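Recall the central idea of this unit: under ordinary conditions, the amino acid sequence of a chain determines the structure it adopts. In this exercise we apply that idea directly, starting from the sequence alone.
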Amino acid sequence: MSSASRYTYLGPEGTFTEAALRSLPEAATRELVPMVSVPAALDAVRAGEAGGALVPIENSVEGGITATLDELAFGEPLMIYREVLLPIAFALLVRPGTELSSVKTVTGHPAAQAQVRQWLSEHLPDALWESAASNADGARLVQEGRFDGAFAGEFAAPTYGLEPLATDIADAANATTRFVLVGRPARLAARTGADKTSAVFWLRDDHPGALLELLQEFSIRGVNLMRIESRPTGEGLGRYCFSVDAEGHLTDRRVGETLMGLRRRCLNVRFLGSYPRADEVAGAVARGTGDTEFAEASDWLNRTLDGRG
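Accordingly, the structure predicted from this sequence is:
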């Protein structure tokens, strides 16, 4: 099977990432390869060993997944081609025959801890938590006898010979994790009318109102920001870049001109992709910011320059 027909994902087998990947129709015709980390999954794409990688990028409880955000901001450029939203509920997986009273040590991905903290305090207040590379890796560690229980998807139990001691564990109702399918940069797919654009931008210099000035590039063109997060650049305290998701597609005039405005004013802008929204919701276009109004304004300017205004 060619590398283009291979998708990597944050493994091992039995992760929520695998479940999200298998929800894509094309996954049925791809070789799905688990990787030990987000960087490893993305590096396989960069090296041409895989056509795409599915990785988590944010969840509704803990926010952004820093490993993914930093890889997309600072690593060799990649592009997002689609997103997947997956409702998240955990099960406490244990070795067969284990009772709740004997669970003294538990594990799971760090993001899971924030989503089961209240359940733990109510049912296992004295249990010691130690983080694992992924929830499925935590299940593997329980299988090996290194922990008494792991918080993972219930679907991971058969893979690791475990059984769910408790299910549907979620401190926050409707908890959801967002995943993105990432590939090498290529020509954009056509807009769907319900799209999202992601980018990272760096301030040129630090001065009062610097971030506000850049956010106004979105505001004055009627582009709705769906997410903004700061990430340290590693160049010293107080030096940050900003990762954003915005409604719309790069070919929408309001979005394209916003990124051009950022490019003029920023030290650097990295475009991460325009892709269909998983919720298929078309964002509202404010009066005066649609493509027709941009075209009419451009036509008016040309006529004015020609003395026909």
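The longest helix spans residues 291-305.
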